[in-house]
Amino acid sequence: MIRVAVIGGSGYTGGELLRILAVHPKVEVTYVTSREYAGKPITLVHPNLRGFYNMNFSQFSFDKLGDKADAVFLGLPHKVSLEYVPKILEMGIQVIDLSADFRLKDPTLYKIWYGYEHPYPDLLKKAVYGLPELHYEELKNAKLIASPGCNATATILAGAPLVASSLLETYKLISDVKVGSSEGGAKPHEGSHHPERQNAIRPYEADGHRHAAEAEQELSLIAKRDVKVSLVPHAVSSVRGALASVHGWLSSDISEMDMWKKSIEFYKGRKFIRIIRSNIHPYPDPKFVIGSNFADIGFAIEKRMQRITMFSAIDNLMKGAAGQAVQAFNISRGFEEDEGLRIPPLRPA
Amino acid sequence: MIRVAVIGGSGYTGGELLRILAVHPKVEVTYVTSREYAGKPITLVHPNLRGFYNMNFSQFSFDKLGDKADAVFLGLPHKVSLEYVPKILEMGIQVIDLSADFRLKDPTLYKIWYGYEHPYPDLLKKAVYGLPELHYEELKNAKLIASPGCNATATILAGAPLVASSLLETYKLISDVKVGSSEGGAKPHEGSHHPERQNAIRPYEADGHRHAAEAEQELSLIAKRDVKVSLVPHAVSSVRGALASVHGWLSSDISEMDMWKKSIEFYKGRKFIRIIRSNIHPYPDPKFVIGSNFADIGFAIEKRMQRITMFSAIDNLMKGAAGQAVQAFNISRGFEEDEGLRIPPLRPA
Amino acid sequence: MIRVAVIGGSGYTGGELLRILAVHPKVEVTYVTSREYAGKPITLVHPNLRGFYNMNFSQFSFDKLGDKADAVFLGLPHKVSLEYVPKILEMGIQVIDLSADFRLKDPTLYKIWYGYEHPYPDLLKKAVYGLPELHYEELKNAKLIASPGCNATATILAGAPLVASSLLETYKLISDVKVGSSEGGAKPHEGSHHPERQNAIRPYEADGHRHAAEAEQELSLIAKRDVKVSLVPHAVSSVRGALASVHGWLSSDISEMDMWKKSIEFYKGRKFIRIIRSNIHPYPDPKFVIGSNFADIGFAIEKRMQRITMFSAIDNLMKGAAGQAVQAFNISRGFEEDEGLRIPPLRPA
Amino acid sequence: MIRVAVIGGSGYTGGELLRILAVHPKVEVTYVTSREYAGKPITLVHPNLRGFYNMNFSQFSFDKLGDKADAVFLGLPHKVSLEYVPKILEMGIQVIDLSADFRLKDPTLYKIWYGYEHPYPDLLKKAVYGLPELHYEELKNAKLIASPGCNATATILAGAPLVASSLLETYKLISDVKVGSSEGGAKPHEGSHHPERQNAIRPYEADGHRHAAEAEQELSLIAKRDVKVSLVPHAVSSVRGALASVHGWLSSDISEMDMWKKSIEFYKGRKFIRIIRSNIHPYPDPKFVIGSNFADIGFAIEKRMQRITMFSAIDNLMKGAAGQAVQAFNISRGFEEDEGLRIPPLRPA
């Protein structure tokens, strides 16, 4: 049993980690912290977990962590992780960081997208970008895993087979993303107030979204050339779920069958990718992955214009956050990548 | 491994059974039928199950069933089960019937509530009402399990500790139930059309709902006297979830603490009952059981009027249908009652 | 043109008043205040009203009010209205108060339900309870109108024809109310956070809700005897809409046709009451009154138990708040009661 | 008073026309037909309109129409309108056709997009495309108005100021549209079943949507060059509302302020266009136009990539269908374009 800590356990990602880890056969959750709820029962904040945890939230301390954990999931805000990661690594504890602080290889990008000078460029090199479909081998024995952002995950998984195929006229892609409200986290604010959020179809950060940086890094690696991504997110009424519609212009004709084969081929052997082609449900829909770690991938081609749209559908808290983090952790530990994650999606939900 | 068949596998209850059984460690699903989709892949109808089933739906035949199954879950409409159950039992195969056809002990009630003369009064005696919290012992080795209705389950679980406590002025209860749209099944109709159903708060069958018969049967057993229940269901916007608010008048004062203790005591040892009392979430809410087999039970007392309301929250497809059927099956087979059902609820969802 | 002020114009009730008054042919909105948004455009807070208001919110001052308004709608929190009403009345300006501060005739009830000693028992006598269906004549020329609460409005309108008919076994009623999220106002809080509120079916204040006091006052007047009401509200997923299900036990048989006639008779001539009886939509549903001032009233009788449930469906911001306030104002000014309110409900919505 | 008929009055567009026309001061609704509901009360199908119509639906007959109407709104399926329009025009009755049958000027496009040879190319020339923001002058005295499709309306209104500005690198646009469920009409089907539709984020007709033909026709007219539009619609959870995100690549830098001015300039004097730029709500959202005929227009520019996204938000049943039809009718009759349409949007809704 690997002893696991969840730092920042009171948010939605923390809660989702606790939900998964509660029934993960190779893991024991030993330490869960929350600044706001320290001393209070986990189930006060996460009433769904009644019966699964008797523990209280703790205040964080490096000493306690050292006593209690072999691996730690960090569910902290961007920039806050920086204060924890180097020290925890020094203590010999594995880190799976769900913030953005170690996702980008090029330190100068932190200045541009996150507004701070990155203090640990060396750690950026050591960190493995925790998207197992692209970095499976590197994840084995990884000590620092930088778990991808949800909009980035959706965009990359949709775009990867396309940029890999050398079919594009230009390598400037539009990723028009639609997301549920849980993506915004557990803190109430004006825009998340139910009467304001329900029935909204609301663009946000539409003049440039940070996850584009991750998407460009990863897609450029695959394409072996510079790929640019304009990521335009929209808040819609769902609670869970994200759909990325990645639009591009084809340089030449390709049949749907060939594109389907290329997609199948690209993701061969990856357990959480399902390539969609069906009469009744021809395209991916987050509805069919809710509660699971699957990413459903599909596409549409408009022949007269040589326009292709790649779609990917994920549960933003699972494949977009906690589920993917556990998947990467599994690989790093030599477990099956779907250990503790063999959960069929809920339907209807 | 017990070989299990699901008859009527294309509806929501069938889909939910398949979802649970796909990862149930003691069970192998060998035979799944659907009149409408025979010959077509299970995953065409249930796209969430892509990757879990490669099988097609079959046409039903008693011979095939005999070859393939040790136990069968029947997800058929009311009255249709009657045509299957006696013959399947004769074949020595265990039946878990999710229709209403074997739930009521008194055959005359079928005439009143379902409009038909029950042809097998003897089987009614043999059938075990599959609510494990009330019939745990009888379920052991049961050959015919009549799995309860969802509104009945919610009403009975809420009402049971109350009628058991001899605190009521009269034994006429109002069960005001609020349910999500999945309770209406997978067939589209006028009232289930999204623009009509979304944002509805719509009473239905408000002049008498059939599940009252089950609720009266079970609550009378517990109270050891005649209990009457008026069940008034309302369709609300959720997809999953049912909340029963069971209103009664108390004959004497009781403190919240005492009522809480009585509830705890009543359900002692039952793994899927959680008695709710909390600062942040003081009452049950189906939101916190989505995707799981839990029933959350709580209550409120209005002192000045001696009014008590017992609440129970369930996922109508899990504890209200498929989950409960598997729970009862587990007990009948000597497994842990939560085998294959140790799934924490999804949150937020 | 009557010059009208809206005090507390940045909340949902304020916004709804502004929406109605913008196109009310007999009214000019001259003064709109907001503590939080003073100096900022009305349309910054209410983007739906772009094109209808060029005004900014003002800080409140009695002098300004005196200069600008003949009538004032007060959209202030409970207890805060007390500080404004006496002085405004002295200034000779008509007050339509949407808080609870002048709704109850018996001053001792304020101690019990609102926790304060009412300082103006004389004004309580002068105030007219602004439910036009019950107080039409008194509203003519009323100087102080106490506009009813939304849950109270729904409960009273449903219960009135029933208690008027002398058909009840006992005069203790259960009003099981289901409400949309806009009822909770415009301020975000934990429970209103979209991921928490969406798909909830959540009882609240279930041990006694304040609006019961209004309901008891008004229903006792009609019944000419003491009526007790236990009001149990539930939050459901809709944004707008409230349904009250008022449950009672009948003392004797009554046919549906007779009950329908009694209801029709009771509300004869009242423009905003629609008595529902239909094949396709047999019961009221807030869905069919969204955006309008209508209250749809209907009922169900379960004969075997002599249980009756009266239903009323309203838009909580219209008939439950701003619409009803304007309706009462219209009557007080000798206008048609539906002046500026002849808006058919939106469907589907 | 102009006597008006609504042919095909039982669907959502028909219902919305009836809702508007019920309170339109210059119009009397004299004749409403429905094949399915002939002989039955209008309010049986449209319960929101109780109190506004005492009429029944009629079977259609040209004779009756000739007796009763000066103008007719046709809410019929595509291709069916063809059988009515020429004859009605011959009778001297004005036609506002809400189908696609007279929207396209080039008859060959009907073969391509709708699969039929257009039998009346001459009428295509006479028909006026009923988008008042672009064809105001032509609409005056128009005898045949072809009312635009909802996705086309959203796409054109968003794209028009952009293609007018000569700022684009290429004139191939992506219109990524998100729509509510009412766009699919009043007939229930598998995909509209509430448990299937709620929480969906589902692309449909993603390999080419017919409304692209209208969008290309109109945008090419404005751009005075060939504009291509790839329209990719997505079903989201709302009931009402459509948002078009029209993505393009800029050929040169333009500041937000300049683009804002260009948009303001382009739509100068048009009553139902609101150009959005605000701190709190920076982009259009259909939430803020619900129940009204407004189109809110805004945009975002991602400087580093010279990507522009134009957004337009409409209520698909109002500006996307019935409201726009009445607006065009108003202009054709010399009324104010907002006659009967001066309704502020509902909020929150």
Automatic annotation (TrEMBL), chains A, B, C, D:
Its EC number is 1.2.1.103, 1.2.1.106. Coiled coil: none annotated. It catalyses: [amino-group carrier protein]-C-terminal-gamma-(L-glutamyl-5-semialdehyde)-L-glutamate + phosphate + NADP(+) = [amino-group carrier protein]-C-terminal-gamma-(5-phospho-L-glutamyl)-L-glutamate + NADPH + H(+); [amino-group carrier protein]-C-terminal-N-(1-carboxy-5-oxopentan-1-yl)-L-glutamine + phosphate + NADP(+) = [amino-group carrier protein]-C-terminal-N-(1-carboxy-5-phosphooxy-5-oxopentan-1-yl)-L-glutamine + NADPH + H(+). Pathway: Amino-acid biosynthesis; L-lysine biosynthesis via AAA pathway; L-lysine from L-alpha-aminoadipate (Thermus route): step 3/5; Amino-acid biosynthesis; L-arginine biosynthesis. GO terms for cellular component: cytoplasm. InterPro entries: AGPR, AGPR_dimerisation_dom, AGPR_type-1, LysY, NAD(P)-bd_dom_sf, Semialdehyde_DH_NAD-bd. NADP(+) binds at S10, G11, Y12, T13, N316. The keyword Oxidoreductase applies. Keywords: Amino-acid biosynthesis, Arginine biosynthesis, Cytoplasm, Lysine biosynthesis, NADP, Oxidoreductase. Residues 3-142 form the Semialdehyde dehydrogenase NAD-binding domain. One of its GO terms (molecular function) is NAD binding. The active site is at C150. It is found in: Cytoplasm. Involved in both the arginine and lysine biosynthetic pathways. Belongs to the NAGSA dehydrogenase family. Type 1 subfamily. LysY sub-subfamily. This is [LysW]-L-2-aminoadipate/[LysW]-L-glutamate phosphate reductase.
